[in-house]
Design a protein that fits this description.
About 85% of the residues lie in helices and about 0% in strands. The chain is mainly alpha-helical. The longest helix is centred in the middle third of the chain and has 72 residues.
Length: about 160
């Protein structure tokens, strides 16, 4: 029996799910024809039983909705915290980038001062701040004079 035939015979409109899981299997296990089965179903309190079951299902569905709403709220709050943390990290990265730019400027200044005054101490400080390879690359890229110590450093780097 189709759900539309059931509705026409009983005047009751169940949910599709309830019809297919409860009413249809019950009908399929009987030996009665459609009309007789529908009359018996109504006489035996089928409508009330269906209403009760559908109300219970609706209550369960509502409880699930409330649970899901609660979970969504938790996830939204967690997401908000993650966004705040990301924003803080972005600010920290910007600050770090600014500090790095200042350090590069300071290192360039130290190299310039080392060149100007021939200071081995300033040269060593620049190498400490930049690293050996970057220091040599900077001097070559900016056409600065290579000191004997720089040439020795190049040879040491090539032999590594």
């Amino acid at each position: 029996m189709l759900i539309s035939e059931f509705i026409d015979r009983t005047g009751f409109r169940p949910t599709e799910d309830y019809y297919h899981t409860e009413i249809e299997p019950e009908y399929n296990h009987s030996n009665l024809d459609k009309d007789a089965w529908c009359k018996q179903w109504k006489k035996n309190g089928g409508i009330q039983k269906a209403y009760d079951a559908m109300c219970k299902q609706a209550a369960n569905d509502y409880a699930q909705v409330l649970t899901l709403q609660s979970r969504v709220k938790e996830l939204e709050e967690h997401n908000g915290k993650l966004i705040d943390e990301c924003n803080q990290l972005n600010v920290a990265k910007e600050n770090l980038d600014d500090l790095h730019a200042e350090m590069i400027e300071m290192t360039v200044f130290i190299i310039e001062q080392a060149e100007k005054y021939g200071s081995n101490e300033l040269r060593e400080k620049a190498i400490e701040m930049m690293g050996e390879r970057e220091y040599i690359a900077f001097k070559i890229n900016h056409d600065l004079n290579l000191w004997q110590a720089d040439k020795s450093l190049i040879l040491d780097l090539l032999n590594q």
